[in-house]
Design brief:
The chain is mostly helical. Helices cover 78% and strands 0% of the residues.
Length: 77
Amino acid sequence: MFLILTTGHLLTLLGVLVLLFALVQLGANFNHAGYKPGTPGYARARDGRRNGYLSLTAAILLLVAAWFTPLGAIVLI
């Protein structure tokens, strides 16, 4: 029995992993919420938000790219 992985499968897996990482990064925002500007906690929350949104954007782009592969054509049939 052959295991066939297409580019769509790999992009979907990578997109889901990046999505989970984005949720962890956005969680840093909640762990350090409530600090005043200029404090290390505020900087950690700001960096967590920024990195989380960047990772979330990358995850969405990977998942959208997976739909433009043969996997997307198979699923949409």
